[in-house]
Amino acid sequence: MSPSFYEIVQLSNGDYALRRIDDDSAPLVKISFSEEAREMMADRDMNVAKAMIAAGIEAVGSVAHDIDWEEDEQEATEISPSYTLH
Hints:
Layout (H helix, E strand, L loop, with lengths): L5 E5 L5 E5 L8 E3 L3 H7 L3 H19 L5 H10 L8
Antiparallel strand pairs: 1-2, 2-3
């Protein structure tokens, strides 16, 4: 299996996305900032998006070995909220 390379891109609607370089399918992650948040960041939104993605990757790497994925999948099917919490 060849290694995958990723890139962070700004989408036409202003959101940021993490995607595989060689794959045009849906991005792995999307980050969207409100206008208020963009104003507060004063043109540093790309740097913030990069930091958020890096933190997410680091968090997954550090907790992946402690997670019982089968147990989590069972719990997820038992509890199905009508909203998405971020």
